[in-house]
UniProtKB/TrEMBL annotation:
Family: Belongs to the ROK (NagC/XylR) family.
InterPro entries named in the record: ATPase_NBD, ROK
Presence of the UniProt keyword Transcription in the record: no
Protein name according to UniProt: Polyphosphate glucokinase
UniProt keyword Kinase present: yes
Keywords: Kinase, Transferase
Signal peptide boundaries: none
Source taxon at top rank: Bacteria
Gene3D superfamilies, per the entry: 3.30.420.40
A molecular-function term among this protein's GO annotations: kinase activity
Length: 248
């Protein structure tokens, strides 16, 4: 069975049909740049462009880089336009896609669900925390495989700063930090999350998961196992489609 997955990020809107049995993209993904400002209207246009690229006419699962409650209402918008707050995203995207059935879920939660089912978290019990390092820091918390949604651990305070402003992948690029310097910040962040939740496993997702060997060797003193995400940057697309398949 296939469902279309779309991952809306701070820099790109990516999508593809997803093979739900394999937990993988059924076709190569297509991406458009996230508009700036990333207003609901302009993002919805980008989503339509991605979906129309495939001539898709079935169900569509979408991620959003902020808190999503009740499967539709956007509550926060740290890295997109603030006019998203209180938007009914399900209605917005459904209308823009000509009435196709749509679901909306937080981007890190989607990536986490994909990794727990098809990637680095398969069969893992206990407390597992997936963190995505990109424009911001996203989090997905699992207890015995069950998701606790909208945890927003990227906004924990770290040395008086919003953690994602210090330790996201964007912070590394904007600050022109070496991998080692950035890894040091990530280590402090992981130590803080570990102090709060004592997870057995950290899964590191987002675009940096492809470059894990550049920074993971510099991270020390964390008791939990730390592994890169296996679906890498496709986890959000796959998780969005899985969420839609669950009939949310
Ligand atoms: C948002 C989260 C999101 C993360 C990654 C954060 O700024 O608050 O909801 O998961 O960025 O996109």
């Amino acid at each position: 069975m296939q469902i279309f997955g779309v991952d809306i990020g701070g820099s790109g809107i990516k999508g593809a049909p997803v093979d739900l049995d394999k937990g993988d993209l059924a076709e190569e993904r297509f991406k458009v740049l996230t508009p700036h400002p990333a207003t609901p209207d302009r993002v919805a246009d980008g989503v339509r462009e991605v979906v129309e690229h495939y001539g898709w006419s079935g169900p569509v699962g979408l991620t959003f880089p902020g808190v999503v409650t009740g499967g539709s209402t956007i509550r926060t918008a740290a890295n997109v336009d603030k006019s998203w707050i209180d938007t009914n995203a399900r209605t917005l995207f459904g209308d823009r896609l000509g009435g196709l059935p749509v679901t909306v879920v937080n981007d890190a939660d989607a990536a986490g669900v994909a990794e727990m089912n098809f990637g680095a978290g398969q069969g893992r019990k206990g407390t597992v925390v997936l963190l995505t390092f990109g424009t911001g820091i996203g989090s997905a918390l699992f207890v015995d495989g069950v998701l606790v949604p909208n945890t927003e651990l990227g906004h924990l305070e770290l040395h008086g700063h919003d953690a994602e402003k210090r330790a996201s992948s964007k912070a590394r690029e904007d600050g022109d930090l070496t991998w080692e310097h950035w890894a040091h910040r990530v280590q402090k962040y992981l130590a803080h999350v570990e102090m709060l939740f004592s997870p057995e496993l950290f899964i590191i997702g987002g675009g940096v998961s492809r470059k894990a060997q550049k920074f993971l060797p510099h991270i020390e003193g964390i008791k939990a196992e730390i592994v890169p995400a296996q679906l890498q940057n496709n986890a959000g697309i796959v998780g969005a489609a899985m969420h839609a398949a669950q009939g949310h």
